[in-house]
Amino acid sequence: MRHFARLVLIIFTVLRYGMDELALSGFRQRWVRALVRVITVGRKLDAPRGERMRLTLERLGPIFVKFGQVLSTRRDLLPTDVADELAKLQDRVPPFPAAQARRLVEQAFGRPIEAIFSAFEPEPVASASIAQVHFAVLEDGRQVAVKVLRPGMLDIIEDDLSLLRTLARLVERVSVDGKRLRPREVVAEFDNYLHDELDLVREAANAAQLRRNMQGLNLILVPEMVWELCTSSVIVMERMYGVPISQRARLREAGVDIPKLARDGVTIFFTQVFRDGFFHADMHPGNIQVSIAPETFGHYIALDFGIVGTLTEVDKEYLAQNFIAFFRRDYKRVAELHVESGWVPPTTRVDELEGAIRAVCEPHFDRPLKDISLGNVLLRLFQTSRRFNVHIQPQLVLLQKTLLNVEGLGRDLDPDLDLWNTAKPFLERWMNDQVGWAGFVERLKNEAPRYVQLIPDLPRLVHRALEQPLATDPRLLEALLVEQRRTNRMLRAIAYTGVGFLLGLIAMELIVAFR
Asked: Cβ neighbours of residue 435 under 8 Å, at least 6 residues apart?
């Protein structure tokens, strides 16, 4: 009955804001289109469709608001007007009572709150759809922030996710664009985000990793976790003091160099992506502050680590090559990379894809670099990609969203920010480190333990291959061929390593000789 009541509320809200018309407009069945004509008679729906969708999600509650926020990042799947409107969704969620927050903290730690904190502020300083934050003071005098998960969130999430999965299956089955839009994958992606955010220990671990990665950069501060006071429902961290990055007037009064702040934001982002492959993926203004303390003046302060992105070495190399090809206007290389990576079907004609990418990018590059919006370029590319059945990779969705956030944040700080020129030297230096001598030595160090284990097996494998009798049984012959191929691969790997090592030694000798 609880599910039924929730479904009735959803249907009523959908009808109220005319979402039924939008949801059913892409269906090809005649009876569905006739139904749309009937149910829209007499209703006045003057507001744009994107605004109506945003209002619907806000009315349905925090889980649907969060879903709209995630969906707004998939601009490859949405019309531009809808994506822009969903991007306005904010966590306008009233806080839960202070007495309830106090009780949740005591349940999490199993002792009275006075035994944990010498002071605990009952009024939250921030309240979102998943959790809210209170300031407190530990017994040893440390100033901390206490993040408390909203009560009953798991049950609410599971109920609404169940309904979303059902709707996604229905849309995929009967909608014209259902398969291309992949609604079930979008819901699954949303499911992962939510469950990650519901485990506050995971958020604390994300913060700890980001803090270690950023220590040597001296551009960004990450709060330290109080690990003995971290549970899945409550975490305690160092309290950070800063000015919200959206308050530019206060920052200027404090003497912060705003253009440098914008450039530093780009440097931080590309460092996290290409050096570490681990980046803060929720960099909207509400999660970013700026320190004005003398010892850390002008440093960014990152908050809320529920969503982070990770990239493999293959992802990083692919992205760097794409960015550099864009910088150099090498559109053929961009098209080839799409085919090589499997983003488009292997039957795609490279010249056609190259022409489509050129048509998107060239009008932007003919303007001064500081006037180029990477966000607009990406949006046009997403729209063009539909014609070629491009499948955007899940591991890069967060990167796309974060890149748009970083560009918007940088341009708000400094309208003259040259994102391309700021990023290009960083990417070229990273690529040189990967494919140059330093990258070769690093890979050789990483692979050396593996080859040390393989070399002792080499004589035995060669001897076994030479001593094998001629096989007549097809199954035995196939097994022998598999073993021989394995041996050949091992021999080639060892040979390549040996040649590489010798070439490295020769190069080092030549460098020393010419010095």
From this structure: none
> Which of 344, 146, 349 lies closest to 230, judged by CA?
146
Residues annotated as catalytic (active site), given as ranges: 282
Given this model, what pLDDT does residue 461 score? 66
Given a contact cutoff of 8 angstroms between Cβ atoms, the answer to whether 134 and 95 are in contact is: no
Q: Is 316 helix (H, G, I), strand (E, B) or coil?
A: helix
HSE-CB at 254 with a 13 A cutoff on CA atoms is 20
Rounded to the nearest 10 degrees, how much is the dihedral formed by the CA atoms of 245, 246, 248, 254? Answer: -40
| 3-state secondary structure labels for all residues of 59-90 | HHCHHHHHHHHHHHCCCCCCCHHHHHHHCCCC
Backbone angles phi, psi at 373, to 5 degrees: -100, 110
308 has which bridge partners? 280
Q: What is the 3-state secondary structure (H, E, C) of 250-282?
A: HHHHCCCCHHHHHHHHHHHHHHHHHHHCEEECC
**Positions of E strands within 259-362:** 278-280, 288-290, 300-302, 308-310
Contacts of 414 (CB under 8 A, 6+ apart): 258, 259, 261, 262, 263
pLDDT of residue 177: 58
pLDDT at 333: 86
CA 86 from centre of chain: 18
pLDDT for res 486: 65
The sign one gets for the Cα dihedral 134, 159, 197, 90 is negative
Radius of gyration of the chain (CA): 28
DSSP 8-state assignment for residue 470: P
Q: Which residue has the tokens 């996710």?
A: 161
Q: CA-CA distance, 504 to 47, in Å (whole number)?
A: 67
Helix (DSSP H) and strand (DSSP E) numbers for the chain: 22, 12
The DSSP letter of residue 277 is: S
If residue 238 lies in a helix (H) or strand (E), which one and from where to where?
strand 234-238
Provide φ and ψ at 263, rounded to 5°. -65, -40
Q: Which helix (H) or strand (E) holds 474?
A: helix 474-514
Paired tokens of 318: 């692919």
Residues 205 and 222: beta-carbon distance below 8 Å: no
Q: Which residues of the chain have pLDDT under 70?
A: 1-4, 20-45, 62, 70-78, 90-93, 174-182, 341-343, 364-386, 389-398, 400-401, 419-420, 431, 434-455, 457-458, 461-515
CA pseudo-torsion sign 35, 39, 41, 43: negative
Per-residue HEC secondary structure of 114-166 comes to HHCEEEECCCCCEECCCEEEEEEEECCCCEEEEEEECCCHHHHHHHHHHHHHH
- The DSSP code sequence of 363-376 is HHHTS-GGG--HHH
CA-to-CA distance for 515 and 367, rounded, in angstroms? 45
